[in-house]
Amino acid sequence: MTRTDDANLAHNVQVLFQPFMVGTLSVHNRLVVAPMTRVSATAQGVPTAQMADYYRRFADGGFGLVITEGLYTDERSSQGYLFQPGLANTAQREGWRAIVAGVHASGGRIIAQLMHAGALSQGNVHGASNIGPSARRPKGEQMAFYRGEGQYPVPEAMTAQDIAQVIASFADAAIRAQDAGFDGIEIHGANGYLLDQFLTQGINLREDGYSGSVMARLRLIREVVGAVRDAAGPLFVIGLRISQAKVNDFTHKWFGGEQEAAEIFSALGALPLDYLHTTEHEAWKPAFGEGLSLAALAKKHSGLPVLANGSLHDLVQATAILHCAEADAVTLGRAALTHPDWPQRVAQGKSLKSFDPGMLSPIADLANAQNLR
């Protein structure tokens, strides 16, 4: 890189440090910690003091907003991984208070991601059965670094009562998030988990109003968003994470290509959401081989603020996606794990190390990562 290139990059990175609004929430820069499952809660899903230190480090390091790992929403069927934290009961809610307060004390904002694993559950201390839109075994195998082994079990096809219970659990968890002091919640509709299972053709084989057209496959997402908004009120920030790829099917693409993306994002833009959070392997690349990226399609068709995730530790791509107005903020996972002070290091022109996959092996928990520091 030439001296001119260095100067241009230094100028361009300033866009990362501009404030932005998401709903009623003011964030002091456009650098966001992406949700990352760390399986470090107690066996009963209660957050720990170690987790409080972990989350506060990101705010101390300059990230304007932190999105938590996925938090399970009920004690029946939503937990995905052993030692995953939840927001399903009073003890879990109380455990989050100190974490939220610590992030706030360091000048950051924090959003709780609410998640139901559905058919991809590979560890639930509250029950033994998996549920999903249809009784179809998920692709792939369980993730060893989250203590899984072998194929996923065949889930039970959800009844109308199951669906109603799931919707209510998201609303109840959102109220607990408010009570714990979170600045908002993000509904996890991505990566192959339950809400994404309903959206995905070939996985959702139902023969009722939750399957078929795009709007029918989006019905559960629409009903969850509506219930959460009704419960949380008009001012609480509510976002939705969405993707094509799944943790068990990394190369999946929406069957209808860009036209289906337009339908999905137009429908989501009509919901009472404050933002969308798109995730791809490389966020800046065309979503369907050519044309716009998934983030840009979300921005174009929804009219909502968009948080983009996917290898945006690349400063050139991170700044470009903001300068081109394809997204309003970037979310970082591997870079944040490597450098909790990533924003400060970039602002000061310090060197950045590559991510060490050993941080997630053999178990992707905080104890293992701490041993590598």
SSE topology sketch:
Blueprint: H1 3-12, E1 20-22, E2 25-27, E3 31-33, H2 49-60, E4 65-72, H3 90-105, E5 109-115, E6 131-132, E7 156-157, H4 160-180, E8 184-188, H5 194-199, H6 214-217, H7 219-232, E9 237-243, H8 257-269, E10 275-279, H9 294-302, E11 306-309, H10 315-323, E12 329-332, H11 334-338, H12 342-347, H13 366-372
Parallel strand pairs: 3-4, 3-12, 4-5, 5-8, 6-7, 8-9, 9-10, 10-11, 11-12
Antiparallel strand pairs: 1-2
Helix pairs in contact: 2-3, 3-4, 4-7, 8-9
Level-1 CATH class name: Alpha Beta
Shape category = globular
SSE-based structural type: alpha/beta
- The percent of residues in helical segments reads 25-40%
Largest β-sheet summary? 8 strands, parallel, barrel
Low-confidence stretches: none
- Rounded radius of gyration (Å): 19 Å
CATH topology: TIM Barrel
Q: Classify the beta-strand content into a percent band.
A: 5-15%
CATH superfamily: Aldolase class I
Give helix and strand order, one letter per element, not per position: HEEEHEHEEEHEHHHEHEHEHEHHH
CATH architecture: Alpha-Beta Barrel
| Integer tally of domains | 1
How many helices?
13
